[in-house]
User: Fold this.
Amino acid sequence: MSDVTPGGDQGSALTPPEGAATFEVVEVKKGMFGVQGSGDTSGYGGLVTPVAMPAASPRPYGSWFDQVVDVLAEVLADGARVGGPTYDQAVEKVVVDLHGADTPDARQVELTLHVAREHLVAVCQALRDDQDLRFELSLGVSGVHYPHDAGKELHAVYHLTSVTHSRRLRLEVAAPDEDPHIPSTTSVYPANDWHERETFDFFGIVFDGHPALTRIEMPDDWVGHPQRKDYPLGGIPVEYKGATVPPPDTRRSY
Amino acid sequence: MSAPTTAPHATRAAGNEDMSSTVRAFEAYGDGDWDDIAREAIGEERIVVNMGPQHPSTHGVLRLMLEIDGETVTEARAGIGYLHTGIEKNMEFRTWTQGTTFCTRMDYVAPLFQEAAYCLAVEKLLGITDDVPERASVIRVLMMELNRIASHLVCVGTGGNEMGATTVMTIGFTAREEILRLFEAVTGLRMNHAYIRPGGVAVDTPEGFTTQAREALKKVRGYLKQLGDLMLANPIFKARLTDVGVLNLSGCMALAITGPVLRSTGLPYDVRKDNPYCGYETYDFDVPTSKGADCYDRVVLRIEECYQSLKIIEQALERLDRTEGEPVMVADKKIAWPAQLAVGGDGQGNSLEHIKKIMGTSMEALIHHFKLVTEGFRVPVGQAWQTVEHPRGELGVHVVSDGGTRPYRAHFRDPSFNNLQATSVMCEGGQVADVVVAVASLDPVLGGVDR
Assistant:
């Protein structure tokens, strides 16, 4: 990044940082303070920063990760004979986050499986039911909005725990903004009921097959999904009993 | 059912004239048993009672929608969202360090657990999990275990109060007061501490703290014994709680219920043992379980957990004495908060020595201080998940960074939020009075539920 000059050649700056093979650019930020269209008084206007998420990890993953992925592939292969998805169809990539550890056996290392949304329920079922996987506890769903990740703007992240084997695993599913549908996992993990409602409420991800997908935190008639990146923090006029209450920053001051 | 009166009154005059047609009235005649006559007049009536959101026994602003048949609850649903303040969204607009001031306000009865879980998650992203000094981890453990006792005391105390046992509440809160005084001595505040920071803790414990803590804990132990004596063998208490709000192991697993409710089914699942953090694997303590899976067993477990916490605290205090004077923040000056807090003539603030140094001798140190405090540190791109054993169950934090100085996303999996899903399973088929007991045994804190 050292060769970037203010307002200089931005094309060359798009090359991902060191260890390019292990990162995937999802967004490119320009400047330091997000101000556009004014004279560059800060000197940071030409700064181009690619936001690169960790990309697929190569085999072997280390620790128990290989074993779990292998068993999942086996279980899915069995299911594929009766119409289920194969491992290659269901799992798009496997990411191992080392979080600064030297070895994958360290406690802070995490495993993420990126799953194709149409095969999510089959993967969850396999992860929960097979005795060598047994991720019986689902600790909920959280959404993330990546507005610059074209075609995969909305992510739902599932946090699974195996009490039996004392393991933790993350599933990540992506859906485009135009078609924000992800199948509901409540048939496998009933606990995800409220968590999916929350993610729908805040991100607008529609969980198909959910028993009662309604807003849970925001009022039922609320417009918009507050945790999305295009939704402002505050500044929303609120209608209350027929009157419209303007946002605090536009109210008349005395 | 009395017949509607025809005399004009305020609300009638204020509404439309035709209101009498929308108010249902019943007339009952005949002789015999009143129940039979009433049933004949009313027919199959669905009665839905809204309990809350402003009800003293709902631990804040929980709304329970109960469909009742006489005294029996046939359907129970929980309505939440009355305390939603958008803390997670706000965190995306503040630096990583300022995040602790937000998440501490989620579950305000157990604020230090949110702080600890959030900081552990941020430390994972920073890759400094192994660099946090031992003394900082010991203080974190100590504060969390003190907070666990305080939280359980509120649960047992308010639970008792809701059943009419006011003494349980007064003893519980008196004991909690001792712990809040300790919090005040260490963090300066009784709640909303923002004490645990990414990389360590904000400030070292004050002089003479371990002595003060040992004195206070002696009293807490006494109060815990009083509470146990008052409740656990009390026939009225047992009659109200035994076999009420039963939820078995498979129910708990399906609904992802953790904490004392799960352990009351006999499964010794505790994150402190299963996936230790802050060095919990080096402390000697037990995970109490029982088999009853009812509200009574959950009270027994909570009191027993308080004793186990006292055991951990004693070990932590010994380690505090041993590590006296060691650092409480990571050594990396690009992450560590530049100043240690100190009490001055005008209250708590940056230590005077630090101010002297940056204002008088080192321009670089001043710039560094300014940049770190206003802009904050950058966190590498990625996502992390960290769980801790919260008094109410497993608290999870999911943080995502885009490489900037603010969280790209911070999500809290609050145990109260998840556990409230069990309301219908635990209440349906029971009496209305049992709803209060069952909800109290889940111990929801609505600040955490709604965030």
Summary: Chain B has a mean pLDDT of 86. Chain B touches chain A through 50 residues (CB under 8 Å). Residues 87-335+377-450 of chain B form a domain with the Cytochrome-c3 Hydrogenase; chain B fold (CATH 1.10.645.10).
